[in-house]
Amino acid sequence: MGATCSVICSCGDILNSAPDGKISLADAFNESEKVAAWLNTCYTYIPIGGIQYHFQMRGPVCWCDESWDADAEAEPSLKSGQYYIGNATAAVHPILRDESAFWGRFWPAIRKCTYLITNIDAAPVDATDKSRWKAEAHLLRAFYYAELLRWFGCGLPIERETYSYTQDFSQVKRASYYETVQFVLEECDAALSSPDLPWRIVTGAEGYRVTKAMAEAIKARMILYAASPLYNQGQNYWEEAYQISKTALANLRTNEYELYNAVHYPATWEDPEVFLPNTHAKLFNEYFCSTMEYSSGTVDKETIYQTQGEQLDIWAHDGVGAQLGYKTGTCPSQELVDCFETDDGIPILDLARPYLDEVTHLQPNFHPDQVKYNEQDPYVDRDPRFYASIYYNGSKRKANWLINETSDCIENFPGDQGFRVRIIATWTGEPQTGIHPTDRKATRTGYYERKFNHPFAGLSINDLSGAQNKSFRLGEVILNFAEAAAEAGHLDEARDAVDEIRRRVNMPPLPPGLSQEELILRVRHERRVELAMEGFRYFDVRRWSSPGDDLEKTDRWITAMHITRNSDGSYTYNRGPVSVERYCWAPKFLYLPIPMDEVNIMKAHTGENWQNPEWE
């Protein structure tokens, strides 16, 4: 990781090799600068996330019911196209290609962290540096284990000592999922015990180094997973999850982490041509379009960890494809749009059974108290987060449009290339931004992603093209706590946590008198809205399942809003499928398969089949 390297050392200078091109492991720990360089390599395995899944797409966001990847039809050999048709085996799985070969990526990272942890005590390193670097290695090892748990959903071998390549692997045992999570918590506690690991990075020179805040966030996330139905093996861990996440949240607040709750860049977001209807939509969009500063006076006190790596040209790869005429990428689903309540705080759909046709989602089951939602005028009076996150039919964007409007672009003709306001018309037949079944620049669903798109980003202002990916933030920790509290029966605390999230965007508090079951549904619903398109839903629909379940009710059919433009300029809105059903919903898709080569190796050594269910 370049930023860490610039703080600690220069890898190229320190790890100078011998004439044969090699140095020994022992040599790597005989100088402080070399130890620092070793720690630097431990960072290089952290995934960038955001749109940095091959090929400039959002990975898990497009592999669940949140969205459809427009590349699935335009470039069917890429990950989403192969995943949607179910072309996945343990030997060749589309998700586990390129930068997402997580099993082979994270184990070497774990080994490097372990080697540092077990060797740094004897190294000639200043005591303060030694304490901090060792804490960082513990925390990085916890992170890599956590990612393996999230993606593969199985217990893992616990590596406290570095495995030798020549040792007897027949004795290697896997811990249970819960036991592996306990190891992750132990690692985070080891990091937290260091007096020299900071709570926040406040200088750019130390950017992207891990902190105590990240340790608390990992603890709150992973104990939630351990308690969830898919992983708990029939045990009730909710009270433990509640206690751990409550402590984590309290410690973060004590150390001045708080929700991003004001517009801090009014020169941009108070411009009327941002086309956001209120302050709360503006602050939410501003947060996701801004990179956290590394300073003691940062206005962003919510982001806990942002990844290093470019999120370049989101507007060109993952926005309104017609702006450049290239690709759209993430197309938010009608299912996601249905989750944004009306501004009176009433859900659009009945959360217990949102669709009468539970698989195809064409018959919405409206919430019995819903009075504001109009099926033929569906985008008025919605949660401010809707406007901050979604471009919909009739919304507007001022940007550098590299298209000349034709007469059949009715809402926008005439219009030439250049910076101007364009109405995002998504009706069937609109040649630039209308819904289309195969065009790479078009939407599949009737919607475009807005959440991460700077309002004015375009070719001549690439510096506004994408903020760093926020992989841990306080909003998630609050919702993790809310879920654990609701499941453990601490209903008032769960309600207060959800209301804090809602209050930030001026949404009404949850109604009084909710039962535990009703409150759990509201907590899960709030996660869909607050964390939309951040990569959490893919994992949530899985961990909320039970072993042996499938994903048919969420992931088999993804729906769109098919819009007809009438001769009088009005529109008719009809729900319909995107195009074809997905074939990535069978029970085996609750987990990723462990790569077949690895399974064969461990079976040969241990006699045990390590493969995940139904991937044999």
Task: Describe the protein.
- This protein is mainly alpha-helical.
- The chain has helices at residues 2-8, 11-14, 25-28, 32-43, 71-74, 79-84, 102-119, 127-152, 177-192, 212-227, 238-254, 266-269, 279-288, 314-317, 334-339, 384-389, 474-488, 491-504, 516-530, 537-543, 552-555, 596-606, and strands spanning 67-69, 303-306, 330-332, 390-391, 395-401, 418-424, 448-449, 470-473, 559-565, 571-577.
- β9 (559-565) and β10 (571-577) form a beta hairpin.
- The two termini are 37 Å apart.
- Mean pLDDT is 94; it is low at 1-19.
Give the helix tally. 22
Given as residue ranges, the uncertain stretches (5+ residues, pLDDT < 50) are 1-19
Kindly report the spatial arrangement of strands forming the biggest sheet: 1-3
Integer average pLDDT = 94
Q: What fraction of residues sit in β-strands? A: 5-15%
Assign an overall shape. Answer: globular
Cα end-to-end separation = 37 Å
Helix amount: 25-40%
Structural class: mainly alpha
Radius of gyration: 24 Å
Tally of strands = 10
Profile the largest sheet.
Answer: 2 strands, antiparallel
